[in-house]
Amino acid sequence: TRSTRPQRLLAAVQKNATRGDPRSVVSAIDQFCRQKEWAMNVGDEKGCILDSVVSETNPTTVLELGTYCAYSTVRIASLLPPHSKLITLEFNPDYAKIARQVIAWAGLQDKINLVEGASGDLIPKMKEMFGVNTFDLVFLDHWKDRYLPDTKLLEKCGLLRKGTILLADNVICPGTPDYLEYIRNSPQYESRYFKSHLEYTKVEDGLEKSVFLG
Ligand SMILES: CCCNc1ncnc2c1ncn2[C@@H]1O[C@H](/C=C/CNC(=O)c2cc(-c3ccc(F)cc3)cc(O)c2O)[C@H](C)[C@H]1O
Ligand SMILES: [Mg+2]
């Protein structure tokens, strides 16, 4: 049977990227998506904004919602200080399988915990599963209608602390209107919009960075 796009993306990584070199994995995926097949990775333009937020946050504990092919997973983990942890949640086993291989090619297995399952089920288990107290940074990039419920769940589970950063992809395209409305009007958050473009296109999109005020 015909291969899937994530399988072809992985093949491009294994062909064009250097084992153990996360930046070459990121470049290989961007090249594949620009030259061969579009895929819904945060991409190189928004990726630079992601890099700057990660670098200035210098997080010890990161949560990513929606791994897909692990493009942003690798991008984030490559910037983390030693002994820091990135937990990424992916409920589709086929994508998880591809993502694990991309992460392995980048040589970042020691910094990344990919957990298969739905965020709604796993977020309440973060403390018991990983001894996480609170997250320093959360990257939201899963189904767009799940950003708001999962943010409220993170609050309820006490996984956010004063200063925790939430960074949300696609707040314009495809759009996350209920999340934006909530986070921009809540006295518990200070938000800022970083205007950019939908990955590999000229369509407007952007990232919303929100600080939890506690
Ligand atoms: C109930 C489960 C919730 N909990 C969950 N728990 C765990 N994992 C979850 C959960 N919900 C989803 N996932 C996983 O995360 C991934 C899903 C990612 C979704 N991303 C988009 O839909 C998107 C679209 C466009 C786009 C823009 C313009 C276009 F024309 C076309 C496409 C661009 C973008 O940058 C985008 O990120 C993965 C596929 C999916 O298995
Ligand atoms: Mg996205």
What layout of secondary structure does this protein have?
Layout: H1 5-16, H2 22-35, H3 43-57, E1 61-65, H4 71-77, E2 85-90, H5 93-106, E3 112-116, H6 119-122, H7 126-130, E4 135-140, H8 147-156, E5 160-168, H9 171-175, H10 177-185, E6 189-197, E7 204-212
Parallel strand pairs: 1-2, 1-4, 2-3, 4-5
Antiparallel strand pairs: 5-7, 6-7
Helix pairs in contact: 1-2, 1-5, 2-4, 2-5, 3-4, 8-10
Bound molecules: the ligand CCCNc1ncnc2c1ncn2[C@@H]1O[C@H](/C=C/CNC(=O)c2cc(-c3ccc(F)cc3)cc(O)c2O)[C@H](C)[C@H]1O and magnesium ion (MG).
Residues 40, 42, 141, 169-170 line the site of magnesium ion.
Beta-strand residue fraction? 15-25%
Give me the count of strands.
7
Shape: globular
The biggest beta sheet reads: 7 strands, mixed
Q: Oligomeric state of the chains?
A: single chain
Work out the radius of gyration.
Answer: 16 Å
How many DSSP helices? Answer: 10
State the helicity in percent bands: 40-55%
Strand order of the largest sheet: 3-2-1-4-5-7-6
Class computed from helices, strands and strand pairing? alpha/beta
